[in-house]
Design goal:
alpha+beta, 8-stranded mixed sheet, 7-stranded antiparallel sheet, 16 helices
Length: about 650
């Protein structure tokens, strides 16, 4: 990073971009388009590194600013045929057992900085070789690898790699990038081009806050696939979650929680936007959050917060990756497919910045940490303690195919069913230990007492209830999630709310009220800091799963479950991930929809279907659901057109809290 004064920030930014253009003979388009708003808005403490990432500027036959210090230097060559843009790129030829590393020129850093990068690559004979890209720091005169590394995924076409920042540890004053070609055996080749990198400094952010008012600190612990009933604070006496339970004891937890969607990307997008999936549009694996939506990190960032997002993502695109626009508003955003790496990343951020954070009174730190460990595969973290006695499976980890077989009708022995639940519980305990780790670090830094903490999940998990497994459907096992707030000075400790209806849509408005910021007009949720009995989410809980064709709506007592609610079965398989092809058809003449009505107070397990016995309730719930679908499919970002509604629709909208 290149130190600048606060008054010279814009001048430095222009110089840095000019340097990139000159060195690479390209424009700043090397920086991925979706990251430019982040860099533009954070220019006071984010610096682009001019490292000739286009490999255009050369001295002799080598790219200026890069060096291959090991023996097999001939493995790396600049070539015109290797260019994605411009005149040339770099080619790595793997031949024999030699290992070669290409390193960038050093650039200045300070402890706590995050170094992020992206590059484009494509491979030949990919099964034989791969590339590993990492940040290195010079500590005590020695270059040291910082984790985690990025490993390229074989692709015959150009593909982006990166998104994993490294945090500069104590004692380092220089950083660089290292790209190594590590053999798997045989021969192979990679071509790379358009490498961009930037350094984001919390130390600079802290310096910029010297003469500003104090802000709140926030930590969202987002645990994927966390079933409410398996936590000790929710009554699971057989499970041991002391750190989740401690947060619950210091704040307020809610029982009657409904997730807007029973699978990952749409639900987390709802938490960050306070919009239903139909509104924020991130309903499918390939669909990003609508550009018009304002996310929680965007709002906080614009209000002067330093925003950190650390998420588990299976690959670069990922469930919560930047291709789905989850990076919006984050100064530092890390996505990684390895669970322990995601856990360690938050600890690394806190440790690396410990000298800047200790007893820091200005606040303004927002962290969203998302882990995937409680999602299939369930790994038995304690095989010496958790044994499968009497089951057919034996003491094993539980991958997806095992559960799919049971979901498709394979009989299961009681011992195996209990063992699967126990292994799932072991993953919860594993995550609970991460929570302990974060808590201890915040305490050691003197930041815990006033820290605002939210524990939430995107969806639950079924273990043969209703004959179903896993999630993506809208039964309570899959859409009732834990939700707990530790908001010092705002909520009394030790509160357990058994009755209030809440939604994960309520997270954003609640935290914005703590921050004394205005909630966007498009938000569907409400702040839980004050009673709002007429608010929409105080009256009903609605969950949507357009990909699977499931819906549900519940009030304080009854719940309507709908399946076959879209045209999904009439859509060609190749179009099932196309958001424009899947439509709600539940109330159209051609609908194949099926309905189930339950009394949650008398039958919380949803075992007795009541639509024939309670026709008036059944009709009322259907009318309310129809009104919700009609309204939610209108634009959430523009004034809704004033149209004359039927008496039934108007009454349903009033019952939903929309009028």
């Amino acid at each position: 990073m290149f130190p600048i004064s606060s008054t010279a920030g814009l001048h430095y930014w222009a110089i840095a971009l000019l340097a990139i253009a000159v060195l690479s003979m390209k424009t700043s388009a090397e920086v991925p388009e979706r990251w430019r708003p982040v860099l533009d808005s954070a220019s006071a403490y984010t610096d682009v590194v001019p490292l000739n990432g286009g490999f255009e500027a050369a001295k002799g036959d080598a790219p200026r600013g890069w060096n291959a210090p090991y023996k097999a230097r001939a493995a790396w060559t600049p070539r015109a045929a290797a260019a994605r843009n411009g005149a040339r790129g770099m080619r790595y030829d793997r031949n024999g057992d030699a290992r070669s590393v290409l390193v960038s020129a050093p650039f200045p850093v300070q402890e706590g900085d995050s170094v992020a990068f992206y590059l484009w690559g494509r491979s030949e004979n990919a099964a034989a070789s791969f590339l590993s890209v990492r940040v290195q720091a010079q500590i005590g005169g020695k270059w040291t690898d910082l984790g985690p590394a990025v490993h390229t995924i074989p692709s015959s076409t150009w593909r982006e790699f990166g998104g994993v920042p490294a945090f500069i540890p104590h004692g380092a004053t220089q950083g660089r990038l290292a790209i190594s070609g590590d053999p798997k055996g045989g021969t192979g080749a990679w071509e790379i081009d358009d490498l961009s990198a930037w350094v984001t400094s919390f130390a600079k952010y802290k310096a910029s806050r010297a003469n500003t008012d104090a802000l709140e600190n926030f930590l969202i612990l987002g645990i994927d696939t966390l079933r409410q009933s398996r936590l000790g604070c929710y009554g699971a006496a057989e499970n041991h979650t002391p750190n989740f339970d401690a947060i619950a004891a210091e704040g307020r937890i809610y029982d009657q929680v409904t997730s807007t969607c029973p699978w990952t990307p749409p639900s987390w997008a709802s938490i960050l936007t306070s919009l239903y999936p139909t509104q924020h549009k991130a309903e499918f694996r390939v669909a990003p959050i609508a550009k018009e939506a304002r996310t929680l990190p965007e709002i906080l960032h614009d209000a002067g917060y330093f925003t950190v997002g650390i998420v588990t993502s299976g690959n670069l695109d990922g469930l919560l990756g930047e291709h789905k626009d989850f990076q919006r508003g984050f100064d530092v955003f890390m996505q990684h497919g390895n669970g322990p790496a995601v856990g360690e990343a938050l600890s690394r951020f806190l440790d690396a910045n410990s000298n800047h954070l200790r007893n820091y009174e200005k606040g303004g730190i927002f962290v969203f940490w998302h882990c995937y460990d409680t999602h299939l595969t369930y790994e038995n973290r304690y095989p010496d303690l958790i044994r499968n006695e009497g089951g057919e499976l034996g003491t094993v980890d539980i991958p997806d195919p095992i559960v799919v077989a049971y979901a498709q009708g394979k009989p299961i022995l009681p011992a195996d069913l209990e063992y699967i639940k126990d292994v799932y519980d072991s993953e919860i305990i594993y995550v609970d230990n991460w929570v302990r780790d974060f808590r201890l670090r915040y305490q050691r830094l003197g930041l815990w007492d006033d820290l605002n903490v939210v524990v939430c999940s995107d969806h639950g998990e079924a273990f043969a209830e209703n004959g179903k497994w896993k999630h993506s459907l809208t039964y309570e096992t899959m859409v009732r999630t834990p939700l707990m707030f530790r908001l010092p000075g705002e909520m009394d400790p030790g509160e357990h709310d058994h009755d209030t209806m809440v939604s994960n849509l309520d997270v954003l408005p609640t935290l914005l009220e703590v921050a004394k910021l205005e909630t966007p007009a498009h938000a569907e949720g409400r702040s839980l800091l004050r009673p709002q009995p007429d608010a929409h989410t105080a009256k009903v809980g609605i969950s949507e799963s357009k990909l699977e064709g499931w819906l549900s709506i519940r009030d304080a007592q009854h719940k309507l479950v709908v399946y076959q609610a879209t045209n999904r079965k009439h859509v060609p398989r190749e179009d099932l991930q196309n958001p424009d092809k899947i439509e709600w058809t539940v109330f159209t003449p051609e609908s194949d929809a099926r309905f189930e009505l339950y009394d949650l107070k008398a039958d919380p397990g949803e075992t007795k279907e009541l639509s024939a016995e309670l026709p008036e309730v059944f009709a009322r719930m259907k009318t309310m659901l129809q009104a919700h679908l009609k309204r939610s499919q209108e634009s959430a970002f523009e004034a809704r057109p004033q149209v004359e509604e039927s008496k039934e629709t108007e009454e349903a909208l009033q019952a939903l809290g929309y009028l």
